[in-house]
Design a protein that fits this description.
single chain, 567 residues, alpha+beta, Trefoil (Acidic Fibroblast Growth Factor, subunit A), seven-stranded antiparallel sheet, 23% strand, globular, binds ligand LR7, binds manganese (II) ion
């Protein structure tokens, strides 16, 4: 079985001390959980919910004592989170109000807002996490705005998710409808089943392991009331997979993607930060939504073509919906006064019961999104992702292309230029390719990603140039002089003095990251220090350095274009 890294979710940033911090991540794998020892059907079908008074209250972590370690570890495998801890926390637990002061001062007139149907799809979710999601919605939403909760069971196998669930929700003070897929259909089609029966003016989607914070719903619906073509997402806080602590997340990140079309969080662009300095409660646009948590006007959802029904199981639908909404005249935004916690896991607990497993499912979904929405850039995606290219022949996206036509949507170039000008994809005015040193013939190579940090931050190495497609050695040089590569990292010189190392760091649009390539003498000059990029030195031997310009071959760089467009 092939292992693919599907590192989808993470938030990370360089803090004031220059330390790289990862605050949430998701490392999917396709290890069959069946190989996990000692999980009997009896354990799987037992609802172990047995809350201990005050455990986890106020979003505090719950720790399991060492003598229960073995039990904890066994149960951890079932959902890939600490089920024993979750089962000890009340489904009605309190959490800390994660809003900042300026948000708390806002008031909302609920009578002016549209109501919503909350749609939660699940496959083999634990009782405690699923019901904690439901109760957090009920406890922290104004009753007038909560039309109903729709639970869509995507062919779960657990006994407690059948009749016991129906009985339990029938006694809740809010109307909760449970509908079921007879066969595993995947989260995208399961959400469509929910949307079909929903009656609210808006739809609000949540994953089945969330905790809604205080006043989470009003700010989202306010944005839609003002403009029905807005898709509103909350700030996603972190519920810790090991101890269920509710951890407030950063508001200064937006969602986008990397060269593999995997969702990524990146620090907000400079313009957006600037605009928000006056008022930190202002919603900000996001090029892509995370996917699981958002509100949308119900009729607008239908108008723009709901989801691509041919997308299976998991993945890609958030990219597709985001491209579609932006390119077809709507907007996707993050509303900083709305916070919802989501349980982040490091791997996926469920099977992908399809030929080819997670890889072919995800790549097919991504190939569909690319084929319909990315114009020229789909060729870039397929060039760099042979796994997706393999799926390309087998997909039929005629209907989705017709939808794009019918809606008169804008180009992907418009999307990049307007919605995500900070992007690191090649474009017409940019160099894209390999950078080779004249003296030793070696190529620029981005730092290896090691450990938990996903953005490949570190000193820049040279490697033997690879002739085949090799994204590690591909770089973009923008007209403005930023030398960037995948994952939004840029060539930077923290010291900006002679004989110090250059590094790849999160792109930040500051002068320290600007370079000027001089095609006549082939130097790459650091704009701020006027120093030249050079090979490692005895003083700084671990990577490329800045040195006084000396016209030697070690300071000559050959830019070799890689063609990515067919036309
Ligand atoms: O076959 C399936 N059927 C389902 O009903 C597979 C999953 N599901 C359910 C599942 O029970 C859960 O409620 O679908 C939901 C999402 O699945 P997760 O929680 O395993 O996925 P995730 O949290 O890794 O998923 C993120 O990416 C997905 C891509 O398809 C979806 O867009 C998820 O909604 C999305 N989750 C979030 O955006 C939460 C915040 C993460 C961040 C940042
Ligand atoms: Mn999830």
């Amino acid at each position: 079985m092939t292992m693919i890294r599907n590192d989808k979710h993470q938030k990370e940033y360089i803090d004031k001390r220059g330390i790289h911090v990862v605050v949430g991540h998701y490392l999917g794998n396709d290890l069959p959980w069946e190989t996990t020892p000692n999980i009997t059907n009896e354990i799987l079908n037992t609802n172990g919910y047995s809350p201990i008074p005050k455990a986890g209250d106020n979003g505090q972590p719950v720790f399991i004592s060492p003598h229960e370690n073995a039990k904890m570890k066994t149960l951890f495998h079932i959902n890939r989170f600490n089920l024993l801890a979750s089962d000890r926390i009340s489904v009605n637990r309190t959490i800390q109000d994660a809003r900042k002061q300026s948000c708390r001062e806002k008031s909302y007139v609920t009578s002016n807002l549209p109501d919503t149907s909350v749609i939660i799809v699940f496959h083999n979710e634990a009782w405690s996490t699923l019901l904690r999601t439901v109760h957090s919605v009920i406890n922290r939403s104004p009753r007038q705005l909560l039309r109903e909760i729709i639970l869509v069971d995507d062919a779960s196998e657990r006994a407690f998710l059948k009749n016991p669930l129906d009985d339990y929700v029938s006694k809740l003070p809010v109307y909760v409808k449970v509908i079921r897929a007879t066969n595993r259909t995947g989260l995208i089609r399961a959400r469509l089943m929910g949307a079909k029966v929903a009656r609210g003016q808006t739809l609000t989607f949540l994953d089945s392991h969330c905790e809604c914070n205080y006043y989470w719903l009003e700010p989202l619906l306010t944005r839609i009331a003002e403009d029905r073509k807005r898709v509103a997402c909350p700030v996603i806080d972190i519920i810790h997979d090991e101890n269920f602590a509710y951890v407030r997340s950063f508001e200064f990140h937006w969602g986008a993607f990397n060269w593999e079309l995997h969702f990524r969080w990146y620090p907000l662009g400079e313009k957006e930060i600037h605009r928000r300095q006056k008022d930190g409660t202002l919603p900000f646009r996001t090029p892509v939504m995370a996917g699981g948590l958002f509100s949308i006007d119900r009729s607008y959802f239908e108008e723009i073509g709901t989801y691509d029904e041919m997308m299976d199981i998991w993945g890609g639908e958030n990219i597709e919906l985001s491209f579609r909404v932006w390119q077809c005249g709507g907007s996707v935004e993050i509303v900083p006064c709305s916070h919802v916690g989501h349980l982040f896991r490091r791997s996926s607990p469920y099977s992908f019961p399809r030929p080819g497993g997670v890889g072919s499912v995800l790549y097919t979904n991504l190939a569909r999104a690319a084929e319909v929405w990315m114009d020229d850039w789909k060729e870039f995606f397929f060039l760099l992702n042979p796994g997706a290219k393999k799926m390309r022949k087998g997909i039929d996206v005629m209907e989705r292309k017709a939808l794009r036509e019918r809606l008169g949507c804008k180009s992907f170039k418009w999307y990049l230029d307007t919605v995500w000008p900070e992007h690191f994809l090649p474009t017409d005015g940019r160099f894209f390719g390999k950078i080779r040193n004249k003296k030793n013939g070696k190529c620029f190579q981005r730092p290896n990603t090691k450990g938990t940090a996903r953005q490949p931050v570190g000193k820049v190495q040279l490697g033997d140039c690879v002739f085949e497609t090799y994204p590690q050695q591909y770089f973009v040089l923008t007209k403005e002089g930023f030398l960037m590569t995948d994952e939004s990292i840029c060539l930077d010189s923290p010291e900006a003095t002679a004989d110090t190392n250059v590094v790849m760091l999160a792109c930040n649009e500051y002068k320290r990251q600007k370079w000027k390539y001089n095609p006549t003498d082939r130097t790459l000059v650091h704009v701020k220090s006027k120093l030249c990029l050079d090979l490692p030195s005895s003083h700084s031997p671990d990577g490329l350095t800045l040195q006084h310009c000396n016209k030697l071959a070690t300071q000559e760089w050959l830019f070799e274009t890689v063609t990515w467009k067919t036309s």
